[in-house]
Write a structure and sequence with these properties.
CATH architecture: 2-Layer Sandwich
Largest sheet: 4 strands, mixed
Number of strands: 4
Order of helices and strands: EHEEEH
Strand order of the largest sheet: 1-2-3-4
Distance between the termini: 19 Å
Helix content: 40-55%
CATH topology: Double Stranded RNA Binding Domain
Number of helices: 2
Number of domains: 1
Length: 100
């Protein structure tokens, strides 16, 4: 799976880049039909929520899968987003099983 990580209006963080790749690796092994992951890290300048946003869009056969979370730090946002993606991927795999 190809992974593109972007930091929107904030400095690039090698630590967060590595952390996200580490968290996405098990998904790419478990769901080998994933092709691309687009990851966006954002900070809210006037936070109404918690202020640290992680968004992930996965490309795969059929419609894309998207998850986003807003937490007090990026690590928590990544964990929450990956958890949401996992739920969606399990559901998609069940839908695809008759065809595979």
């Amino acid at each position: 799976m190809k992974i593109n990580i972007q930091f929107v209006r904030m400095p690039t963080s090698e630590t967060m880049d590595g952390y996200m790749r580490e968290k996405l690796a098990p998904l790419s092994k478990k769901y080998e039909w994933l092709t691309t992951a687009e990851v966006f890290f954002k900070k809210e300048h006037k936070p109404k929520g918690k202020g640290k946003i992680c968004e992930v869009q996965l490309s795969l056969p059929g419609p894309r899968i998207f998850a986003s979370s807003n937490e007090k730090n990026f690590e928590m946002a990544v964990k929450e987003t990956i958890s949401d993606l996992e739920k969606q991927l399990k559901k998609r795999k069940q839908e695809m099983n008759p065809y595979i």
